[in-house]
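Weekly structure sync, notes
Attendees: PL (lead), two postdocs, one rotation student
Agenda item 3: pending single-chain targets
PL asked that the sequence for the first pending target be pasted directly into the notes so everyone works from the same version. It is reproduced below exactly as submitted, 88 residues in total.
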Amino acid sequence: MGGRSSVKKSTVGPHCRLGFGVKLTNCILMDHVVVHDKVTMSNCIVCSNAEIGEGASLKDAQVAVGVTIEPGATIKGECIDLDREEDE
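Predicted structure, written out during the meeting:
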């Protein structure tokens, strides 16, 4: 876990990496999740082997297994899976 990060009312699975300035509130991170610097997440579920890009903001979101969220993305109230990612 990087400096200046906060984890409140959240569960972080084994082998997860949290960058600098990450803020998690009421989230569940499963195994092997990578959260890059300056990410803010609230009320989110992130499945195994997912990656959240630097500066992303997620609220009320679900991220499927193996999905990568682009840096700087803003996601609110969505379920992100591999099928959706390929459609973009």
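Discussion points:
- The chain has a mean pLDDT of 94.
- The helical segments are 82-87.
Action: rotation student to compare against the earlier draft before next sync.
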